Amino acid sequence: xxxxxxxxxxxxxxxxxxxxxxALRNPQSLKSSxxxxxxxxxxxxxxxxxxxxxHVPSSCIEYVIDMNEKAKCTAxxxxxxxxxxxxxxxxxxxxxxxxxxxTAFVSVExxxxxxxxxxxxxxAEMETWAxxxxxxxxxxxxxxYCKPATVSKPPPRQMECDLCWAWYVPYPCNCNCRGxxxxxxxxxQPCHERLEFSFDSGAYCQKPCDRQGQLHGLTTGCGSGHDxxxxxxxxxxxxxxxxxxxxxxxxxxxxxxxxxxxxxKAAGKAAKLAYKxxxxxxxxxxxxxxxxxxxxxxxxxxSKQFITDAFKDYSSTHKEAILEAGALKFxxxxxxxxxxxxxAVSLEIAKLVDPTGLVTLKSYLDSSSCDEIAYCAIDYCPxxxxxxxxxxxxxxxxxxxxxxxxxxxxxxxxxxxxGCDGSCDNDTHDWCMTTENNCIGVETDGYxxxxxxxxxxFYPR
Length: 461
What we know:
10 helices, elongated
């Protein structure tokens, strides 16, 4: 008799300690909602499961379940509706308001996270890469600083909780952030989920200053939040941020290579005289005069480590030929900057050499973007260019495919997307695949080739 009593007591204790009654374990089915005033949180439980989990919705981000109050349920069998009491959480409120205030100042860089990155596949693309690499190597030095590209994080959310049981009364248990970062009682997305934007600066994620491909020693971060910059450790850029970052192309080249200013003027004059024989003749005349400056530029940059790495599969002769072609492309595309007033001939040469505007500079560069002035990797070396020439009039405005997928962009993009209904990869702007590959507004890679997608949402998400 004593043995049976012990057995019954043992079974009773096992069932009592179980998070979910043995008789109730079925596939998950749970629906939840909060009241408009955030005073109650209602859970409709169709059955019980180890996988039943929930969190207070974002509309009540400043409230948490009051653990001192038991849930009130309509039944002791399924389906059942249970109501939890909510209470205001001062820690959540302070954390949320701090993040909200900081996010208001975020400058968001447009562009997909890895979309469009690839290595050059032919000599023409390698020349374009070389043009941008040479320009960035020559135009900026250690006394500059740059601002890292930034994307805002999604709003914080409440901790996720499992649904546990004390007999037939549910209660939240095992509450945590499920891989997100916990700050006070709220969960914030970790920046490693934003791929390239892996540096966590509080309310948003930024490209790290010490990433591979960052040039000029601008690899040390300074400041926080929207005020963060990348600078050279020995400079005073961290405290002297009012110093202008404007750069005059011809002035810089003239200081590096004596005779550059005169060469630019002579090339412009020669091009103008040869223009009567056509644009190609004008270009050839300009290239002939600027060849010496191109060779000097190549000599100055060819031993830099990132360029050596980029040309590791090329012979030294082939490497120098491509670099010289790239330097000439850069110089002739910007011939107008060395003239007293941008001559029409120089502008025509720029369109001929650089029809997509990939290596054509503004007269004075005043960009502070790290990607524009201080970053060059073999699979992504964005140009410091002015607005590209207007698209041909025969092109139509881009339109979204009705249904599309883009598995290479990860996240939910491998699943069927419809039109411009959202951003499947957490981009800050809505985008979609286009019905036509070449259209007005289509995004291009670093070589001017259409990527087949465009930003269809005008405002940030």
